[in-house]
TrEMBL record, chain A:
InterPro entries: NADH_UbQ/plastoQ_OxRdtase_su6, Nuo/plastoQ_OxRdtase_6_NuoJ. This is NADH-quinone oxidoreductase subunit J. The chain crosses the membrane at residues 6-24, 31-50, 56-76, 88-112, 144-165. It comes from Sphingobium scionense. GO terms for molecular function: NADH dehydrogenase (ubiquinone) activity; quinone binding.
TrEMBL record, chain B:
NDH-1 is composed of 14 different subunits. Subunits NuoA, H, J, K, L, M, N constitute the membrane sector of the complex. The keyword Methyltransferase does not apply. GO terms for biological process: aerobic respiration. GO terms for cellular component: plasma membrane. It comes from Sphingobium scionense. The chain crosses the membrane at residues 15-41, 87-115, 121-143, 164-184, 246-270, 282-304, 324-343. It is an enzyme of class 7 (translocase). HAMAP family: NDH1_NuoH. It is a multi-pass membrane protein. This is NADH-quinone oxidoreductase subunit H. NDH-1 shuttles electrons from NADH, via FMN and iron-sulfur (Fe-S) centers, to quinones in the respiratory chain. The immediate electron acceptor for the enzyme in this species is believed to be ubiquinone. Couples the redox reaction to proton translocation (for every two electrons transferred, four hydrogen ions are translocated across the cytoplasmic membrane), and thus conserves the redox energy in a proton gradient. This subunit may bind ubiquinone. Its EC number is 7.1.1.-. Its main location: membrane. One of its GO terms (molecular function) is oxidoreductase activity, acting on NAD(P)H, quinone or similar compound as acceptor.
Length: 203, 349
């Protein structure tokens, strides 16, 4: 009973906040609706018993990615009228992409539920004693270890690429050398002199 | 407790719902009282270190000061700036406060004494604490004012930076405990060298305990990392435009978060509800007493640091997070997992 109620609550909230993400006029509101959508999607995953994925969704997307979105959107000065202007001309293209995605989802789910993976699952269901993390770790670090490491390398290359693209060595900047500052002692910097009256200081 | 309500003739789901709601109230209401008292303690400790008396007028020894402040704030008018984004302006403090309460669901107060014993307890805490930044960012943006906005930008950068190193520090503890479950993490700390309880006595994890304490201060934006409300630069930071209960919610949420971080220090590194020594008579004292004593100790450390350490500059804060804590904690993840691979999991093959 509570399960069913929770499912409908989360599902309705995901769909409606997803719709409001596109429909709201203020981009900051859009980002906030997106957060709500992610949060409720995490709730749906908990109902499925995939608590590890749910937590990762919240930590990675809500905790990091969307904060950066919000960061950028808050600082942008967006002209809403200009943003709206292209709506009609892009509409057919957007609908096409939506159709392709829908077809892919239907095909994917259809093939999965009739395909060898699902049949194998039914024949030998996953061990319910195993926790989420152990189950995912067990399959990720054994059968898919090369794909997993390849994904890691792709991310590393992307990270280095992003740093190389944005890093510029600017001339004339005096950086702070913390070790040097910490090594500095009063006797290196301060000198006591007995200054006679009426004469200039020699530095 | 679910079984008790089922015994009264309720169906399982109703009994579960009722017992969970009671569990939440049993934690949340004393927590509010604890926040009021800990604000008083904070002011007293701070005053003592500055050779002042601190609050001493309202009630015996000034004990009722926080309640008087709360009443004063409650009777004030809520002012919403006309240029602000009204809905978000009012939602922001509610988010801060709610998020500060949510994380307590998985904190074990004693063996088996917690609302929700989920397998991914520590990840849940990480997820909830990563939501905390939204209250601050939204408050800063919705106020539509310069200083709150600067504060919001600082807050988001600061919290993201320190969450990264906190994540790695948590991983070292999880590796050692072999579980994300909070109770399992506490139980795994029993009997270091046969008589000590606590990961902090482990030479591989002790540096992590220190780093976690410092990161916890940065994550809750406590002094010396309180750049989000640095009064000499940003008036009151993101709270500048707030008054009345909206302001009080920020206040309560902030201190509830500080207590939570003190509790996490105790749970992850100093044995949580276990007594500090693995000696049978000490187990006669209920676990919650030990846990609260440890929280009180860490709160004293927080106040002590607040009273004595000058505020960091923003670039120093970022340097500490990204250039010192991140590489060091990453190195310790490598070190701890390597050590466990060689000893516990026999990885020489």
């Amino acid at each position: 009973m509570i399960h069913v109620l929770a499912f409908y609550l989360f599902a309705i909230l995901v769909v409606s906040s997803g719709a409001l993400t596109i429909l709201s006029r203020n981009p900051v509101h859009s980002v906030l609706w997106l957060i709500l959508a992610f949060f409720n999607a995490a709730g749906l995953m908990i109902l499925l018993g995939a608590e590890f994925i749910a937590m990762l969704l919240v930590i990675v997307y809500v905790g990091a990615v969307v904060v950066l979105f919000l960061f950028v959107v808050m600082m942008l000065d967006i002209d809403f009228a200009e943003l709206r202007a292209g709506f009609v001309s892009y509409l057919p293209f957007g609908l096409l992409i939506a159709l392709v995605l829908l077809a892919e989802i239907v095909l994917g789910i259809g093939l999965w539920s009739a395909g060898p993976v699902e049949l194998a699952q039914r024949a030998a269901p996953a061990n319910p004693e195993l926790s989420n993390i152990q189950a995912i770790g067990g399959i990720l670090y054994t059968r898919y270890i090369f794909l997993f490491e390849a994904a890691g390398i792709v991310l590393l290359v992307a990270m280095i690429g992003a740093i190389v693209l944005t890093h510029r060595a600017r001339g004339g900047v005096r950086g702070q050398n913390v070790a040097k500052q910490n090594r500095r002692r009063p006797q290196d910097a301060v000198r006591n002199i007995n200054q006679p009256v009426g004469q200039g200081v020699e530095l | 407790m679910t079984a008790f309500f089922q015994g009264l003739g309720l169906p399982f789901e109703g009994a579960w719902l009722l017992s969970t709601i009671i569990g939440i109230l049993v934690i949340a209401l004393p927590l509010m009282l604890a926040v009021a008292m800990i604000i008083y303690a904070d002011r007293k400790i701070w005053a003592a270190m500055a050779l002042r008396r601190g609050p001493n007028v309202v009630g015996p020894l000034g004990l009722l000061q926080s309640f008087a402040d709360g009443l004063k704030v409650f009777l004030q008018e809520t002012i919403v700036p006309s240029a602000s984004n009204k809905a978000l302006f009012l939602i922001a403090p509610i988010i801060t406060f709610t998020v500060a309460l949510m994380a307590w669901a998985v904190i074990p107060f004693g063996a088996g004494v917690l609302v929700s014993n989920i397998n991914v307890g520590l990840l849940y805490i990480l997820a909830i604490s990563s939501l905390g930044v939204y209250g601050v960012v939204l408050a800063g943006w919705a106020s539509n004012s310069k200083y709150p906005f600067y504060s919001a930008i600082r807050a988001s950068a600061q919290m993201i930076s320190y969450e990264v190193s906190i994540g790695f520090i948590l991983i070292t503890v999880v590796l050692w405990a072999g579980s994300f479950n909070m109770s399992a993490i506490v139980e795994s700390q029993k009997g270091y060298y046969g008589f000590l309880n606590g990961n902090g006595f482990n030479p591989l994890l002790f540096p992590m305990a220190i780093m976690f304490l410092i990161s916890a201060m940065a994550e809750t934006a406590r002094a010396p990392f309180d750049l989000t409300e640095a009064e000499s630069e940003l008036v009151a930071g993101y709270q500048t435009e707030y008054s009345s209960m909206a302001f009080a919610l920020f206040w309560l949420g902030e201190y509830a978060n500080v207590i939570l971080m003190c509790g996490l220090n105790a749970i992850l590194f100093w044995g949580g509800y276990l007594p500090p020594f693995d000696w049978a008579p000490l187990y006669l004292v209920p676990g919650i007493i030990w846990f609260l004593l440890k929280i009180a100790f860490f709160f004293f450390v927080f106040s002590w640091v607040k009273a004595t350490v000058p505020r960091y500059r923003y670039d120093q804060l970022m340097r500490l997070g990204w250039k010192i804590f991140l590489p060091t904690s990453l190195f310790f993840v490598f070190l701890v997992s390597g050590f466990l691979m060689l000893t516990r999991y026999g990885g020489a093959q």
